[in-house]
Design brief:
Elements (H helix, E strand, L loop, with lengths): L1 E5 L8 E5 L10 E11 L1 H6 L17 E9 L11 E5 L8 E5 L3 E3 L6 H5 L2 H14 L7 E4 L5 H12 L3 E6 L2 H10 L3 E4 L14 E6 L6 H7 E9 L12 H7 L2 E4 L2 H7 L1 H16 L7 E6 L3 H10 L5 E5 L3
Parallel strand pairs: 8-9, 8-11, 9-10, 11-12, 12-13, 14-15
Antiparallel strand pairs: 1-2, 3-4, 3-6, 3-15, 4-5, 5-7
Length: about 325
């Protein structure tokens, strides 16, 4: 079978589409899945150069979320799972035609989502839910500022905020990205210059900031918070972490809150299951639907990574493994 492999940490150019052995037969509590589609995420890109906090042993296959159909089950797994369309999760390994995983890494795909949407659903929706509900305590009627609102993570936060009754302000660097944010449920939009972002129009008016970008946006976004606001640190797409002026944090009475949705589930598995159930229910209710901005066959996966790296991608990049 085919799988993308990374044998050295030198970025996208290190990706190699290889013929690899079939995955092992499923053991007790395991299933083998024929992958249909895989959603790419920014951590996948960072791992190619060793820039993410989790560093898998070399060589490895990228891919942390996707959708597929069960083709074999191990001892103790119900035979009626065969043929089921399942969401697949893992820290790596999914960008392949077939994979064997523990049953705990599978759950039924929401019927409301297409295969491509399902492939890119979990990471963004789960991060948004953990950030806004568990960590940020978002309440209906609060004003939520979402930075990077045209990316897969940002669009998930826009949709989640709208579903939870917030007034969502979407900020992005292109009008096309803001159009996607409006479609996801944003109530206001801000077109930003990446180099010199101006958030003066929402200064001291926001209760929460959802920030997967960082970089030049941090200080303007911090100033956008009202008294007692919460700043949710999601990631650093915009560059290395910046120093925070703690005097401003003190004077504004704000909270800086780190969000690691995957680690939260590993630390508290029961809470992790509750979050997954919540996002699946929202999807089934039609309130969460990922925007797929790039869909390519397995052989063209590096092109999707390049679109992510260039910052031109709107929504999620999805790789089809079944064609």
């Amino acid at each position: 079978m085919r799988a993308w492999r990374v044998a050295e940490l030198r970025g996208i150019d290190a990706l190699t589409l290889a013929d690899v052995p079939e995955p092992p037969p499923p053991g007790p509590g395991e299933a083998t899945v024929a992958m249909v589609a895989v959603g790419l995420n920014y951590p996948d890109l960072l791992m190619l150069s060793g820039g993410y906090q989790y560093r898998p042993a070399l060589p490895f296959t990228p891919g942390m979320e996707g959708v597929g159909r069960v083709i074999a089950v191990g001892e103790g797994v119900a035979a009626d799972l065969l043929g089921a369309r399942m969401l697949v999760g893992g820290r790596t390994g999914l960008l392949a035609e077939r994979i064997t995983v523990p049953l705990a890494q599978l759950r039924p795909a929401p019927e409301s989502l297409s295969d491509s949407e399902a492939a890119g659903f979990t990471t963004g929706a789960l991060t948004a839910h953990v950030a806004l509900v568990a960590r940020g305590g978002l309440e209906a009627g609060e004003r939520l500022l979402v930075l990077g609102a045209g990316g897969g993570m940002g669009l998930a936060a826009v949709a989640m905020g709208a579903a939870l009754g917030a007034h969502v302000v979407a900020a992005a660097s292109a009008s096309e990205k803001l159009a996607a944010a409006c479609a996801a449920g944003a109530h206001e939009t801000l077109l930003l210059d990446r180099a010199v972002p101006d958030l003066a129009s929402v200064r001291r008016r926001c209760n929460l900031v959802f920030d997967p970008v960082g970089g030049a946006l941090v200080l303007p976004a911090l100033s956008a918070l009202a008294w007692g606001g919460r700043y949710l640190v999601i990631g650093f797409v915009g560059g290395p972490p910046v120093a925070l002026p703690l005097n401003l944090v003190l004077l504004k009475g704000v909270s800086i809150i780190g969000v690691r949705a995957g680690e939260a589930g590993r630390q508290d598995p029961e809470a992790g299951r509750r979050h997954l159930h919540a996002i699946d229910a929202l999807a089934e209710a039609g309130k969460l639907r990922p925007h797929v901005g790039c869909e390519l066959p397995l052989a063209e996966a590096p092109e999707a990574f390049r679109a992510m790296a260039a910052g031109t991608l709107i929504g999620k990049a999805v790789i089809r493994c079944d064609g």
